[in-house]
Specification:
The structure holds two protein chains of two kinds.
Chain A (H helix, E strand, L loop, with lengths): L1 H39 L9 H23 L2 H11 L9 H27 L2 H9 L4 H31 L11 H12 L3 H27 L5
Chain B lengths: L1 E10 L2 E11 L4 E5 L6 H9 L6 E6 L2 E3 L1 H6 L3 E4 L11 H11 L4 H14 L15 H13 L5 E5 L10 H13 L3 E5 L3 H7 L2 E4 L3
Classes of the chains: A mainly alpha, B alpha/beta.
Chain lengths: ~220, ~210
């Protein structure tokens, strides 16, 4: 027991880092992912100007390339490139910002795909009904489409969010001290698995809270089908 | 009066509408009939501005116009075959959303919606969500939603096809009562009996 209380402060400090990366990534990646998915789902409408058409085509191509890059390479590699690679072209982040930047870009790519699936699952007729009611594109998204998309994507978002808690352990590669690293250090120093067992318990507690929150949020969308 | 002249539409190599000319007269009900796949719904979608015609002219009360312009001016309302109510909004909100976004006060929009719901025998469903309504009720909400914007022309796509056959007469009564209130209507249907029970004039689309 004494041993546990002696290593707990280090583990909690690591937990704080894990949660910081987690929260920042969600706050940055969810809106960015949604924005990217809106670009991916842009529909050409009758009577749209050629400039607008091409603007959105190019935009869509760029977003697809971004998606490919960030979903097609390991997050670990992206962390290394952001922290050690970008300084070569003059972009320097401190460790924490580099981690947050890489995580936000990586998760936004996944969220964009999830939201794209969600947008695709909203019936075409809903967009048409909004069009004939003279709703603007933004009003259609805000009042009709996004509320429906959120309900559709909640289960897959929940999965990604739980993955994010665990993925945050990758920040060790650029020298940040997260929960897993704190446990590893204690285990190596004291030659016991107790710290890592505790790390496992803390991860489980975090995902328990998230699973509970996910169920609550899903239930709050149960008022319609 | 809305006149469509020489409307042409093809999808890839398939000619769907060829030189269609039809006049939609004020405060009358026009039925667009024809076999499945003849292009009835395409014609309705062109009038609604949801599908662009390849060529043709539109004349609204003597002035050349476009379906997109008519829609912007609030001339056209549409009742879709699948109704397309917004599942995330209550019946009342389905009806008040567009008028409120177009500047009506919440109180005015709500009064008008409740009045429409009462007319359509749905007063007790104002706070219900669409999933809990029957097909016939959904259709009436869709009609109320379209009427709340006071369109001059109301378009219906196959209003009887998603409903129980024994509701056909009640849909006909409904369409006729909307006409009696002065709304011009266009009804696309493959159901000739239904067309006869609502139409002042009939336009047949052939394959």
């Amino acid at each position: 027991m004494d041993y546990i209380s002696s290593i707990l402060p280090a583990l909690l400090a690591g937990t704080k880092m894990t949660l910081s990366i987690f929260c920042l990534t969600l706050v940055g990646a969810i809106p960015l992912g949604m924005l990217l998915s809106v670009g991916l789902m842009h529909r050409e409408t009758a009577g749209e100007s050629a400039v607008k058409k091409w603007f959105f085509r190019i935009l869509k191509g760029l977003i697809e390339a971004y998606d490919w890059l960030f979903r097609g390479t390991p997050l670990l590699l992206q962390l290394i490139f952001v922290f050690y690679g970008l300084p070569l072209i003059g972009i320097v982040f401190d460790r924490f910002n580099a981690a947050a930047f890489a995580f936000i870009l990586n998760y936004a790519a996944y969220f964009a795909e999830i939201f794209r699936g969600g947008f695709g699952a909203v019936a075409e007729g809903q967009f048409e009904a909004a069009t004939v009611l003279n709703l603007t594109r933004w009003q259609t998204l805000r009042f009709i489409v996004i509320p429906q998309v959120l309900k559709i994507v909640l289960p897959s978002m929940g999965n990604e969010v739980i993955n994010l808690v665990k993925d945050s352990s990758l920040v060790y590669v650029i020298g940040l001290g997260d929960l897993l690293r704190a446990g590893n250090i204690a285990t190596a120093r004291d030659v016991t698995l107790v710290p890592l067992a505790l790390v496992g318990v803390i991860y489980l507690l975090m995902t328990l809270v998230l699973t509970f929150a996910q169920k609550k949020i899903e239930k709050s969308f149960d008022y319609y089908k | 009066m809305l006149e469509l002249k020489n409307i042409n539409k093809r999808f890839n190599d398939q000619v769907v509408l060829k030189d269609v000319s039809v006049t939609i007269e004020d405060q009358k009900t026009l039925a667009i009939v024809g076999p499945s796949g003849a292009g009835k719904t395409t014609l309705l979608r062109i009038i609604a501005g949801l599908t662009a015609a390849d060529s043709g002219t539109f004349i609204w009360n003597g002035q050349a116009t476009t379906p997109a312009q008519l829609r912007k001016d609030g001339v056209i309302g549409v009742v879709f075959q699948g109704f397309e109510l917004f599942p995330n909004l209550t019946v009342l909100k389905n009806i008040t959303l567009a008028p409120m976004l177009q500047g009506q006060s919440e109180a005015d929009a709500k009064d008008r919606a409740l009045e429409l719901l009462a007319d359509l025998d749905l007063a007790d469903q104002a706070d219900a969500y669409p999933f809990s309504l029957s097909g016939g009720q959904k259709q009436r909400v869709a009609i109320a939603r379209a009427l709340a914007l006071n369109p001059q022309i109301l378009l219906y796509d196959e209003p009887t096809s998603a409903l129980d056959p024994n509701l056909r007469q009640s849909v006909a009564n409904l369409v006729n009562s909307v006409k009696d209130q002065g709304t011009t209507q266009v009804v696309v249907t493959h159901d000739m009996d239904f067309a006869q029970s609502v139409a002042d004039t009939t336009y047949t689309v052939t394959k």
